[in-house]
Amino acid sequence: CMGSLKHYLGLILIIFALTIPKGSYSEQRNILLIRVASTINPTTKDFIKEAINKAERIKSEALIIELDTPGGLETSMRSIVKEILASEVPVVVYVSPKGARAGSAGVFITLASHIAVMAPGTNIGSAHPVSIGGGGEKDSVMSQKVTEDAKAFIRSIAELRGRNIGWAEEAVAKSVSITEKEALEKKVIDFISDNLKDLLKSIDGKTVKTSGGNKTINTKEAVIIEHKMSFRHKILDIVANPTIAYLLMILGIYALIYEFASPGGYVSGIVGIMLLILSLYALQILEVNFAGLIMVFIGVILIILEAFIVSYGLLAIGGIISLIIGFVMLFDIREIDLRNVIFILVPIIIILTLLFFFAFKSVRKVFNRKSPLGMEGLIGEEGIAKSEINEKGGWLLIQGELWSAYSDEIIPEGETAEVESYKGLKLKVRKKTNR
Length: 435
What we know:
Helices cover 50% and strands 17% of the residues. The chain is an alpha/beta fold. It is elongated, with a radius of gyration of 32 Å.
C-alpha cells in the first residue's frame, strides 16, 4: 500500500513538472524596453526611474531606452543621469529609429548609459546650454559659469564610461553634432545597430560595470518586455511641456476674464479654472522665473486696456510682445528649441489674443447698449431666470441682456419671471402670473 502511494505521488510530481510552462516569468531571461520620444522633462524623469526600478525588480538582463529627443530641462536630465549611474541593471541607450537624434540633454543621457548604440541615419550633439537674456557683462559671466559647469559634468560622465572626453566637451562648448558613423569612429558610442534584433546580438556577452558590480549581459533566448508610459504619464508629459503649459495658462486667464465680462454662462469660467489648474501643475514641476509671470500679467492687462482705450492697436501689440517675452523669461529654456517659440508659439498667441479681444469687445458692447425702452419699459416684461433669484439676488435674461435681479419669493433657475419694478440698475421680479 505504501509502495502504491509513493508510486502515485511520484507520478503526480512528474505530471506537475511537465505542466509548468518552460521559461516562466521568474526563470526566463528578459530585456525591458521603453521608448522616449519627447523633450526631457519631470515626467520623462519619473518614467525612466520607474523603468529602472522595474528592471531591477524583475532582474532584467538590461534596460533598453529607445531615445529620440531634442533636449529638455537640465534638472530632469541630471536626475536621469543619476538614476542610470546608480542602476544595478545595465542601461542601454539606443538612439532610434532612423532620423532620430540625441540632442542637448539627450547627449548626457546617452553618454551616461552602460552601452550607447545608434541606428543608421541618426545624430548626436549640440549640448551647449543656451540662455536668453539682455546681454551685458553679467549675462556673459553667468553664461560662462553655466557652460563650465556643464563641461565638468559631461567630462565626468565620459571619463566614467570610457568615452571620448574631448568630443564630449566640444559638444557642450562648441555645440558640435555628429552622425552615428562619426560617433562610432570617435568612440562616443559602442555600436551601430539597424534594429533591436541586431542590437541584442551586439550586446550579447558584453560585461559592464553597474552599481551592483560587474554584469555580463546574456541576450540568448531573452524576451523583450516593453514597458509603456501610463495614460497618466502621457497626459503629464504633454502638460509638462513649457509651450503647452504656457498656452494653457493664457487660455485659462482669457476664459476667466471672459466669464467675468459676461457672467451667467459658467462654461467659460469652469473651463478657465480647469486650464489654470493644469497650468499651475506644470508651473509647479517646471523651473519658473516669477519675473516672467509678471510680464505675462502685464501683457494680459495691456490687451484688456485695448478694449477700453482707443490706441489704434498699440496696446494690443505691446501686450502680445509682453506675452512672448514673458514666455522666454518664465521657463528655464536653455535647452528648448527656440524655433518653436517663433514658428509655433507666436502665431498661436496672436490668434488667441485677437479672438479674445474681439469676443471681449463684443460682450462689452452688449452690456453698454442701453435698452431703447429705458428702465420704465422693462416693467411688465418677462425674462428667464439664469440662476435662482431670491431676496439676495440672482440673474435674469431679458431682451437678450443679463440683468441683476431680486425677488421677495424664490424663483428657481429656468423659470419665467416678470419685472415688477427697479431700483437703480437692479430689477425686482416676481413669478409669472397666469392671466
